[in-house]
Amino acid sequence: MTLDLFESTLMGTRERLGQQAYVLRGFALPYMPELLQALAPIQKQAPFRHMHTPGGYTMSVALTNCGRLGWTSDHTGYRYTCRDPLSGLDWPAMPATFLALAQDAAQAAEFTQYAPDACLINRYLPGSKLSMHQDRNEKNDYEPIVSVSLGIPAIFLFGGHQRNDKATRVPLFHGDIVVWGGVDRMRYHGVLPIKDADHLQLGRQRTNLTFRTAGLPNSSNTKM
Ligand code: MD3
Ligand code: FE
Fold first, then answer.
1. Ligand with the closest atom to the CA of 144
2. Counted domains in the chain
3. Ligand 2 center–CA 5 separation, angstroms
4. What is the CATH number of the domain that holds 26?
5. Is the pTM of this model over 0.70?
6. How far is the CA of 188 from the centre of ligand 2 (A)?
């Protein structure tokens, strides 16, 4: 079966990965021209960079952020900040089209009133991977994380609540969205090393947008 046939067969379907976790196939495709247009000035203002982990490693995935809060990592640890440590300026604002897509997807996965304040943008080149981890730097552990896949495919690993729990492999294609919240929010997850491929619009790379509610649930003005 070719990739194209596989993609078009699944288009528009909703797969359940867990009690409160869904894959929405092709959900971002109608937003694509606007999404890509909005992405360009973000990466110009806040370029993709390889972060260092507290353990002394350099991440193979390059990242940037938009929205009020952005995720960063260095030798002292992981955290969300209001400013880009590279420039000292606020992270680029979250484009209206990003927010609309994230809210639309959350709704389709039964999460209402979603108000993400952070969008972490990951860039994978062939060979980049993300080891199994939990996302535990957000102050809110119920609100969903909405993930938008762009470019070449990836195999996502969806694990359990223990690092060693068996993980399900989920192939993700350009335009697919995954939504995880509630009881599935703290599950371990990762991305297998990306296989080399060439995407017609994005070239030899995968970009993933992950929307999060990182600040306090009912929004405070505390500078982080
Ligand atoms: C599953 N990013 O940035 S989607 C990350 O494709 C991250 O770039 C991956 O994991 C990527 O932290 C995977 C995001 C994701 C986020 C939170 C989750 C998947 C999740 C929480 C529970 C289960
Ligand atoms: Fe994660």
1. 1
2. 1
3. 29
4. 2.60.120.590
5. yes
6. 8
